[in-house]
Specification:
Elements lengths: L3 H8 L1 H22 L1 E2 L9 E2 L3 H7 L2 H32 L6 H8 L7 H11 L6 H6 L9 H26 L3 H9 L4 H29 L3 H7 L10 H10 L4 H30 L1
Antiparallel strand pairs: 1-2
């Protein structure tokens, strides 16, 4: 018999079931696979091999190389998107004719799926039929230019996200603060460093965290555009795990790499979030 007191527990059962199905079970099953020798062809007959998968991943030169590229890619794109987004937010935080149209135009790249961005630029930068390669007389997807190219493409797509957050943050600053600062003789730079920046600091941290996490997980655009190449120059950790699972068919090793990535990335992120939370409180 359902009572008023037990109703609340029945109401959260669907959420618990979804959480278990999408988070708890895959995590537990991933740990199980990581301690077994499992291939796609032998998925139903795993062989326990202890920590061998973890040792193979940690000693794999490709894993280390992909991890380094992923950190470099994340650092470059996050910093650039923050600077560009902040600059655009300050630029549009004033009366500009046609501002609504320009803001809507700026937000368009963010609304396109990363996979579609990858397809679009793969055609534009194609060595044989791409207009950019034709007019430049060279391909931007060769080893000399490929890393700056994928970084710039990510910046072009996601700088509008940083702009949107920081522009909204600037709208929350009372104009009276700037008026009072002007009366006291403060210049434009002083207003920025002592009024604007402290007021939008939580939003800056939000942009860094969200874009940092998203850049670290990058897969769609780079995989479609370069497939991690030339060679392995643009292989992110996500692409490395994908190739392990679906090209090498080594499910156990891919599961171990995924969990190692979780430990490498989640622990520092947890410490950063904890520090930010303490600073905010």
């Amino acid at each position: 018999m359902i009572t008023k007191k037990s109703t609340k527990y029945y109401l959260i059962l669907p959420i618990l079931a979804i959480f278990f199905g999408l988070m708890i079970f895959p995590t537990i099953f991933g740990w199980y696979l990581s301690f077994n020798e499992v291939f796609l062809s032998t998925f139903n007959h795993p062989i326990f091999n202890g920590i061998q998968n973890y040792l193979h991943v940690l000693t794999d030169r490709m894993f280390k190389k992909s991890l380094i590229f992923t950190f470099e890619f994340t650092l470059l794109t996050t910093i650039a998107e923050l600077i560009i987004g902040l600059g655009l937010a300050i630029l549009f935080n004033r009366r500009i004719k046609g501002k609504r149209f320009f803001i809507s135009f700026l937000l368009l790249p963010m609304m396109v799926a990363p996979a579609l961005i990858g397809i679009m630029y793969r055609l534009i930068l194609n060595e044989f039929i791409g207009p950019v390669s034709y007019y430049l007389g060279k391909s931007l997807l060769v080893s000399q230019y490929v890393i700056p190219t994928v970084v710039i493409i990510d910046i072009l797509q996601w700088s509008p996200f940083a702009f949107l957050i920081l522009y909204a943050a600037l709208q929350t600053i009372p104009k009276e603060l700037y008026e009072a600062a002007s009366i006291e003789g403060a210049g434009r730079n002083q207003k920025f460093w002592y009024i604007t920046l402290p007021r939008i600091q939580p939003f800056i941290l939000m942009v860094i965290l969200i874009r940092g996490i998203d850049s670290f997980k990058s897969f769609d655009m780079i995989n479609i555009l370069t497939s991690g190449g030339p060679g392995s120059m643009t292989t992110t950790v996500s692409i490395y795990i994908y190739k392990l699972a679906f090209q090498s068919a080594n499910i156990g090793k891919a599961a171990a790499a995924s969990l190692l990535l979780l430990l490498i990335f989640s622990l520092p992120l947890t410490l950063v979030l904890r520090k930010i939370y303490k600073g905010a409180s």
